[in-house]
Amino acid sequence: MEGFRFWPGALSASEQADLLARVLAAAEDAPFYRPVTPGGRPFSVEMTGMGPLGWVSDRAGYRYQPTHPVTGAPWPPIPERLTDLWRDLTGWPEPPDACLVNRYREGARMGMHQDLDEVDHGAPVLSVSLGDTAVFRIGAAGGGPTRTVRLASGDVCALTGPARLARHGIDRVIAGSSTLTPGGGRINLTLRRAGPASHQT
Ligand code: MD3
Ligand code: FE
Q1: Which of 16, 107, 109, 147 has its CA 20 to 30 A from that of 176?
Q2: Radius of gyration of the chain (CA)
């Protein structure tokens, strides 16, 4: 699909371990929690976030907000290694203002959806996969055929142009396919521009 850019094995084993340690340290302050859909159904994915804004879902709807919904504290900062990766791979003129952290444990999946809660749909999304391999499904915004891509630990992909509004989801995670995460499972990081562009004057 045009605008789907994929860098398999972008991160070395030691870079993956270092990044995972940083994310787990951030999650000590901003714990993983299980959001509910506006209809009240719990997600099977657990989430947290880093950066000025974090994506949340509850009875009131989907949105980005500056604080963790359980602790009420500001989200921890995005590790510099990730903002560097965003700059180097996307070339986007502004740094990411949100990094959603999704944790998939036994049986977790994510249904097909579009990412529409960001102000500027022209900005790319950059995804970093850590831990067990996911079966990722992607299709055009308007429907039609889909294709699957396996996202393994250390793989990075960017969604730009038409792919930015693509329908996508995680069919399943292949348990035991990586030894990176303690207790198994998968962690996916998505770097985004969620809020309005800041105009430097
Ligand atoms: C395609 N996350 O957080 S990452 C999400 O693996 C999300 O946790 C999945 O979908 C995960 O919203 C997929 C790859 C990805 C991320 C953002 C996209 C694919 C995308 C935005 C637009 C199109
Ligand atoms: Fe998504």
Answers
A1: 147
A2: 16
